[in-house]
TrEMBL record:
Gene3D superfamilies: Phosphoglycerate mutase-like. PANTHER family: BROAD-SPECIFICITY PHOSPHATASE YOR283W-RELATED, PHOSPHOGLYCERATE MUTASE 2 PARALOG. CDD domains: HP_PGM_like. InterPro entries: His_Pase_superF_clade-1, His_PPase_superfam, PGM_Phosphatase. It comes from Lactococcus muris. This is Histidine phosphatase family protein.
Length: 234
């Protein structure tokens, strides 16, 4: 069985100022770097040894992985990047303020003026369709393209790891991608939203099947923060 530690990347400049990052990219902030240092130290404190590492090909996930591997003492393990586990692409709204897209244009498509306040969130398929409709650049993906790449990306990583005899792997991806993937794995569950930067979602994989464990855990980061705090006072 392969144990998968699926991480949302550290906090970035766009995360901080409320921009829809998507396929555009910004580096981690000082706060974001500290958060993934904490995560790495938390993994180390738990004695976690990873056999393989994977991330999207976005700079923020690559940067996050560097901190994780260094601070968890897991350097020099096989590491691959795969564009299939990138964040959603917001097309011509990529890099724009969240409010312009999620509170401006999309409610018009859904005919819902205040869908955040009512909690009547669209499904991922509906959201992808709406983004595709309002994109003027022709960059946005259909739901079939988006869901297909996410599913195949994670499945191939898990199968490759299982074939290599890996027991523990760490994967760094993106908030909406992780939430969508978890929902696709367990359609009957509530779709997770607002996963924290540096949070860990635990999956297990065996013989072609995934199981979803704890979602969006901050326990490793909290443990690492205690390690850092104690190191300063020693």
């Amino acid at each position: 069985m392969v144990e998968i530690y699926l991480v949302r990347h550290g906090k970035t400049m766009f995360n901080t100022i409320g921009r829809a990052q998507g396929w555009s990219d910004t580096p981690l902030t000082a706060e974001g770097e500290r958060g993934v240092m904490e995560l790495g130290l938390g993994f180390k404190e738990k004695g976690l040894k990873f056999d393989r590492a994977y991330s999207s090909d976005s700079g923020r996930t690559i940067q996050t992985m560097g901190f994780i591997l260094e601070y968890s003492d897991n350097q020099n393990i096989p590491y691959k990047m795969d564009k299939r586990i990138r964040e959603w692409c917001f097309g011509s709204f990529d890099g724009g303020y969240d409010g312009e897209l999620f509170d401006g244009v999309l409610p018009i498509v859904f005919d819902e003026k205040d869908w955040r306040a009512t909690g009547k969130f669209p499904t991922d398929e509906e959201l992808a369709r709406a983004i595709y409709e309002v994109d003027t650049a022709g960059w946005a993906e259909t739901w079939e393209e988006l869901s297909g790449r996410i599913m195949s990306g994670f499945a191939d990583m898990a199968a490759e790891s299982e074939a290599a005899g890996a027991k523990n792997i760490v994967v760094v991806s993106h908030g909406m991608t992780i939430g969508s993937y978890v929902k696709m794995l367990q359609p009957d569950m509530e779709r997770p939203y607002n996963l924290d930067n540096g949070s860990v979602t635990h999956l297990s994989f065996e013989n072609g099947k995934f199981e979803v464990g704890e979602i969006g855990s901050m326990a490793y980061r909290k443990l690492g923060a205690e390690v850092m705090k104690n190191a300063k006072t020693d």
